[in-house]
Hints:
Structural class: alpha/beta
Strand content: 25-35%
Number of domains: 3
Number of helices: 18
Amino acid sequence: MATKGDLLLQMSGVQKRFGGAVALRGTDLKIRAGEIHALLGENGAGKSTMLKILSGVHVNDGGTIKLGDKDFITGSPQASIDQGVAVIYQEPSLFLDLSLAENVFIGRQPKKGMIIDWKFAQKEAARLFKELGVELDPKRQARGLSIADQQVVEIAKALSMNANIILMDEPTAALSASEVERLMTVMKSLKAANKAVIFVSHRLDEVFAISDFITVMRDGATVSENPISKTDLQKVIKEMVGRELTELFPKTENKIGAVVLEVKDLTNPAYFRNVSFNVKKGEIVALAGLVGSGRSEVARAIFGVDKYESGSVTLNGKALPAGSPVEAMKRKIALVPEDRRQQGLFMVAGVNRNISMESFDKLTHRGMINFKREKSLTNTWKDKLSIKFANQADPVDRLSGGNQQKTVLAKWLATDPDLLIVDEPTRGIDVATKAEVHRLVNQAASEGKAVLMISSELPEVLGMADRIIVMREGKQVAELSRKEATQEKIIAAATTGKRSA
């Protein structure tokens, strides 16, 4: 059994190519027992490729990987598991109709003779949950578990396979603040058991709160590896982007004009009740609150994706019919959804088709697409938003997360909307791309568009919004101006329903 500080894994000069594209160009990484090690870098820096090599999805093309004093076998997920390496993805993949114990031991059920020993499986699962510091009933069904608890079950599964190195890819991206805290407690318990945790995250505040070491990657190579005590936020950002990043929130004071969106007493009893607010020309209004507070559901109801039972939505002084996204788009509303892959993009379609799909009325003649116009439109937004791709017809699935997000923005900004709704606009993208997305959203407001922004990141809310509407359990509990808003006031309203002093 490893003791604290033992070198578990060493990657030296690791290389990986995909055709003519170089994903890794000589990457180094050292992982020790009893440490939490953050792997940072912009989208496209090579972090995911590193994790996929360690998890057995890819084979490295060059360099060496040692597990202790032995060569690490790559290219087989089962071989990675057998060597004590397990991966926890952002979206857990549990069998929801099975119990937690069944999920922990799926495919490896303990047996007494020819019969599965469920009593032992349940007892062992309970022990693992206790070891991780959480109280979960191994007999309960997985359906209905929060994402955070599903991740705990995945970690318990990894421990049941004697994993010594746990890989976590964006583990907190879809979690609320309380769930993040719980996951961090689990990570600390793994550390105390002399396991090694490698995790990828774009939430740098969490990285500095939990990590022992930070490795920074850029353009497929290792830039630095430092203990947390010998680096700081600005140094890490500079290493990630290759330059000083001074304006993460490039907020400008815009001229606030007439009311564009008016929401009155909007109610869908299952998700939100009596929500009322407005958004004016040139203004950014943020909906803040915990995950599950009803923010996204309000946005979807305004756009017409979801229906509401009572209340009204008015755009530029005229009533907007409920439940009609087509009418919302005709009235110049744009919605950049929370889940860009499932709701915002056709992943197998080209970049050009994704950008142009909401602008076909401008690009077609007698029902036929004018490809020259489509190409011109794509190039226009490629330049405006600095979208990086090799070929316009390349499937958008090949783009980094940040460039996918810019593609969604381009698609909707190309429609020249009066109201731009952005739901978690910077989730899962790197710090440099975050700054770029913030600039684009702010630019839209400066051009006179009304912007409704939903974000779980308080620095983003405070840095971008002119006004902040705080929601809790489907109710609107506070409205704060930019001048009076603080993290403490927003958290107090979101968790208690009351404004702090």
